[in-house]
């Protein structure tokens, strides 16, 4: 049984107003929303929202996490499509247009997380009463559509090798100068996780990682995947896109 603890937001702690999404919200609408909000705490590894659980509530990450957004294929495999950290949110599409039938995604907590949960109508009332919030929500939705379109293009047009290179570039973050600078992914994701991110088998991902290490593009260790040659990774992705164009 998933470990969940629920409580109402106390009147003395207007936490909704501290979230980036609600900056500049109408004060009266914000106060009304807070009377309907509640908190939930989820332990690491629990399903915050299961695949077969329709909901119109909007969940916002107060602290902890991240949460992982998963899709399930017809064969039962899970595909990682996004991660949501503090200040992030999900469920807004169901609040706007009603729940998908069947529900389109599952959400799992990677680490302990505290969520603020708003009924869909309370969320929409707050958004519609607050133009800055509505504008911010539209900007977030637009970026999510762009990101999804990029991933769909990669999945349709690129080989496993090129999709892996693109995903590694997305995951990589700058390293401190004292560690040598450049880019790295720390902690390093395992082969099954990378496979779930790009829609491939982990055996194929393992082969491609081994080849990228052999070519000196990556250095894989227990604490990080270090991008030894960022330019080479970017050339791989560009070459894959160029090859796809020639086939169309």
Walkthrough of the structure:
- GO terms for molecular function: DNA binding; DNA-binding transcription factor activity.
- Pfam families: cNMP_binding, HTH_Crp_2.
- It comes from Roseicella aquatilis.
- One of its GO terms (cellular component) is cytosol.
- The chain is an alpha+beta fold.
- It has 2 domains: 4-154, Jelly Rolls; 158-247, Winged helix-like DNA-binding domain superfamily/Winged helix DNA-binding domain (Arc Repressor Mutant, subunit A), CATH 1.10.10.10.
- It is 42% helix and 23% strand.
- The protein is built from 8 helices and 13 strands.
- It starts with a strand and ends with a helix.
- Residues 10-14 have low confidence and may be disordered.
Mean pLDDT: 89
Tally of contiguous helical segments: 8
* Total DSSP E strands: 13
Order of helices and strands: EHEEEEEEHEEHHHEEHHEEH
Helix amount: 40-55%
What is the CATH class name of the largest domain? Mainly Beta
Please tell me what the overall shape is: elongated
**How many strands, which pairing sense, and closed or not: the largest β-sheet?**
5 strands, antiparallel
What percentage of amino acids are in beta strands?
15-25%
Q: Termini separation (Å)?
A: 49 Å
CATH superfamily of the largest domain: Jelly Rolls
Q: What class, by secondary structure content?
A: alpha+beta
Q: What CATH architecture label of the largest domain applies?
A: Sandwich
| Low-confidence residue ranges | 10-14
The CATH topology of the largest domain turns out to be Jelly Rolls
Structural domain count:
2
Radius of gyration, CA atoms, in whole angstroms: 20 Å
Q: Main sheet: which strands, in order across?
A: 1-2-9-4-7
